[in-house]
């Protein structure tokens, strides 16, 4: 049994009713400036902000990539092994009535 999901309209109505009941109970809604709620002691909380450090230079690894590619190409140039032998197959020999008489292995 699945729980029925609320539509957007139902969710909006529920939020509106919660706001109205809050205001009816002498609740007060304060208006704050944009970004002000993210401040701690009047400053931005930088402990959770990303990209604080300056961009670091990357270490070039072209010689490592070249060595890897050279090893890969060396592996592919090895000559293929000799052709695989085919496995012998079991063949039935039938009589005039279609009944198997005996089995013979063929290459």
Which key phrases capture this entry?
single chain; 107 residues; alpha+beta; two-stranded antiparallel ribbon; 2 helices; 4 strands; 30% helix
Write the layout of secondary structure elements.
Elements lengths: L7 H17 L14 E2 L2 E2 L17 H15 L12 E6 L5 E7 L1
Antiparallel strand pairs: 1-2, 3-4
InterPro entries: SutA_RBD
Protein name: Transcriptional regulator SutA RNAP-binding domain-containing protein
Organism: Marinomonas piezotolerans
Summarize the structure.
Residues 6-40 form the Transcriptional regulator SutA RNAP-binding domain. The protein has 2 helices and 4 strands.
Low-confidence stretches: none
From the alpha-carbon coordinates, what is the Rg to the nearest angstrom?
39 Å
Class by alpha and beta content: alpha+beta
Q: Mean pLDDT, as a whole number?
A: 82
Total domain count: 1
Roughly how much helix do the residues carry, as a percent range? 25-40%
Per the principal axes of the C-alpha atoms, what is the gross shape?
A: elongated
Query: What kind of oligomer do you see?
Result: single chain
Strand order of the largest sheet: 1-2
Amount of beta strand: 15-25%
The helix/strand order is HEEHEE
| Alpha plus pi helix count | 2
Distance between the termini: 62 Å
Q: Sheet bearing the most strands, described?
A: 2 strands, antiparallel
Quantity of strands, as a count: 4
């Amino acid at each position: 049994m699945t729980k029925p999901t609320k539509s957007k309209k139902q969710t909006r109505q529920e939020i509106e009713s919660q706001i109205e009941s809050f205001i009816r109970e002498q609740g007060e809604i304060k208006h704050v400036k944009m970004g002000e709620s993210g401040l701690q002691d009047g400053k931005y909380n930088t402990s959770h902000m990303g990209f604080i450090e300056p961009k670091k230079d990357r270490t070039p690894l072209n010689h490592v990539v070249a060595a890897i590619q050279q090893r890969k190409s060396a592996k592919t140039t090895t000559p293929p092994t000799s052709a695989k032998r085919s496995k012998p197959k079991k063949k039935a020999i039938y009589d005039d009535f279609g009944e198997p008489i005996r089995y013979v292995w063929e290459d």
